[in-house]
Design brief:
It is built from nine helices and no strands. The chain has about 220 residues and is mainly alpha-helical. It has one domain.
């Protein structure tokens, strides 16, 4: 995703991808083979975290550009009018103070913050005195566990070893789900009192957060 002058565009693009991931989950029938289930859930989980990280990155850069919120006003920041590379450099130096740009002022992607971790957008918004910093805090303070637990499940699907499996399975009870030796089954189980699976809840919670941050 790229930075934009209107957060509405960023919100729409992100939600289109979220709906596609929801469709992938919905396509899993009870008769699906284990192989198909594991392949689909691996894809959905990894893509959901990537999508959130890419949204936050584009969101920060858009805010630094003074993007217009869906509710109307433009976002005011401490250092307006920065180039793309200079704006990104601010984020890099919060994460890695000693990092240096490459040729042409470009930054190595490995030096950028771990965008999926909510603390970085909160820190950057506070440091740059974003005029919508209160809404960002509110959007990320709903109590959802998706931004804490999703990276753990992503690590399992990306690396698939006993350590990552146990880490993911240990989160079942924290999400009101009975223990299960398969992380994919945990994600496809409905938490106690919920009408849909955990992964569907998480997709919806990411969508809500995106909409709140862009409004």
């Amino acid at each position: 995703m790229r930075r934009t002058t209107r957060l509405r565009k960023l919100r729409i693009a992100t939600c289109v991808h979220l709906r596609r991931l929801r469709g992938d989950v919905a396509s899993l029938a009870s008769a699906t083979t284990v192989r198909e289930l594991e392949t689909t859930m691996s894809y959905v989980t990894i893509q959901l975290l990537n999508l959130w990280a890419n949204f936050v990155r584009a969101y920060f850069l858009s805010c630094m550009l003074g993007a217009r919120r869906e509710s109307g006003p433009r976002i005011a920041v401490m250092h307006p009018g920065l180039t793309y590379h200079n704006a990104l450099g601010i984020a890099v130096h919060v994460f890695r103070p000693a990092a240096m740009p490459m040729g042409g002022g470009r930054w190595d992607r490995r030096d950028e913050p771990r965008w999926h971790e909510t603390r970085w957008i909160l820190t950057l918004a506070a440091n740059e005195t974003f005029s919508n910093v209160g809404d960002i805090h509110a959007a990320l303070s709903t109590g959802t566990r998706v931004f804490i637990d999703l990276p753990v499940f992503r690590n399992y699907f990306a690396h698939r070893n006993e350590q990552t499996r146990v880490a993911a399975c240990n989160l079942a009870l924290l999400n009101s789900i009975p223990m299960n030796p398969r992380p994919s089954r945990i994600l496809l189980t409905r938490p106690l009192g919920r009408p849909q699976s955990l992964i569907e809840d998480w997709i919806d919670e990411v969508a809500f957060t995106v909409e709140y941050m862009c409004h």
